[in-house]
Amino acid sequence: MLRLLLVLVGLLFVPQLVMAEVYEEDFTNLGLTGTERGIYTVLIFIIAYGFVMAEEFTGLRKSKPVILAAGIIWAHAAILAQDAGVSVEQLHEAFEYNLAEFAALMLFLLVAMTYINAMAERNVFEALRSWMIRKQFSYKQLFWVTGIITFFLSAVADNLTSALLVGAVVMAVGKGNDKFTAIGLVNLVVAANAGGAFSPFGDITTLMVWQAGYAEFFDFFALFIPSIVNYIVPAFFMYQAVPDEQPAASNEEAVMLKPGAIQVCVLFLLTIVTAVSFKQFLHLPPFMGMMVGLSVLMIYGYSINKLYSDESFDIFDKVRDAEWDTLFFFFGVVFAVGGLGYIGYLELLSGAMYDGLGDTTANIFVGIISAIVDNIPVMFAVLNMNLEMDLYQWLLVTLTAGTGGSLLSVGSAAGVALMGTSKHKYTFFSHMKWTPVIALGYFASIFVHYLVNG
């Protein structure tokens, strides 16, 4: 964190390099990083992100400060543009570029979240949780079963949903054994972040890289083996500390799937296929395919209500229950980082990191930053630096940004959520105890990526 702040503070006092740098999108950044207003916008962003990082302690939702910061940053950017003689049309072009980026990703995520909520309402996840509890695994068996399920589940669902679902199992069977609960939840955080790195649907960062066109859908599966290594290495060491005991017998009853549960799962898979097909064959944004899938789910929900008189399946309830705090946080991040980029700070940051350190070192550093700062703004900043990197490097930064958050409990949504629900069984320091072996897995996965894909 200190190194990141030093970089940011250093950039505040770098004089204006140019008056206008041309972006690939044919609008210009202002190159006004040395102005008082420019410095003020960076400070606003740092303060807002301080509130984001303190969410666990303040209870202030992370979306609120970043949306405010985005508005303030763009207000100052507009004033700077006017002072520099930039036309209103050029200003709007820069602003609307960020709007298009957010709209495409927001619609995609909204459909994915709606499907996840629909599957949860049909008891898909509860049935899985019930099954794992009733199987009466030993603690050592449960360690691997929960980790592997989380790894693969997070490739389809997001890491937050996967960690919370399987985390409920770990906390249920680990009741009375705090040592297993703590290790088991660290295991889930690492598995969830690693599993999301090799699939465009597994993490927002991979989705952003895919939609930006820097890698095709099937390119991400080249990260499958590095992702396995990222998880297996720390899991092997943590497994040695798992108690060799049997949990107390459970009287958990089987949870029955509601009508249409399997069909909703199948529709979700078909929606993913549709999204990929729209991008690969029609050259349209993937969110359009997702919206088509949402319409099919709406129609199927209507048929459930007609076929089963005692069932109430309202798709708009599932839309309402989407993670709106995450979606609005994403809005704030896109526009705050976009505003800083328009003023010229991403150009400077790109020079400091990628020109100064080189692509490989900078991309590894991105993952370390992601352990402290959420990987969404980090990856969005990287994408908007207009870097000229090959596929190997784009996959590398996807891997590091996705898995770097495992280094600390606050580095990912999965870790923060489990800290909140574990009733102090899983804490910052219980996770940090395993940071050295998690770091070993992090660097091992980078090395394996080099061997397999380099």
Task: Give an account of the 3D structure.
This protein is globular. It has one domain. By secondary structure, it is mainly alpha-helical. α17 runs parallel beside α19. Helix content is 70%, strand content 1%. The protein has helices at residues 2-12, 36-53, 55-58, 63-83, 88-121, 124-134, 139-153, 159-173, 178-195, 204-211, 224-239, 261-280, 286-307, 315-320, 324-343, 345-357, 359-370, 375-383, 391-403, 413-421, 428-432, 435-453, and strands at 21-22, 28-29. It contains 22 helices and 2 strands.
Briefly note the structural class of the backbone. Answer: mainly alpha
The largest β sheet comes out as: 2 strands, antiparallel
Total domain count: 1
Which word captures the global form?
globular
User: Order of strands side by side in the largest beta sheet?
Assistant: 1-2
pLDDT under 50 segments (min length 5)? 1-26
Mean pLDDT figure:
84
Give the secondary structure arrangement, pairings included:
Layout: H1 2-12, E1 21-22, E2 28-29, H2 36-53, H3 55-58, H4 63-83, H5 88-121, H6 124-134, H7 139-153, H8 159-173, H9 178-195, H10 204-211, H11 224-239, H12 261-280, H13 286-307, H14 315-320, H15 324-343, H16 345-357, H17 359-370, H18 375-383, H19 391-403, H20 413-421, H21 428-432, H22 435-453
Antiparallel strand pairs: 1-2
Helix pairs in contact: 2-4, 2-15, 4-15, 5-12, 5-13, 5-15, 6-8, 7-8, 7-9, 8-9, 8-20, 9-11, 10-18, 11-22, 12-13, 15-18, 16-17, 17-19, 19-22
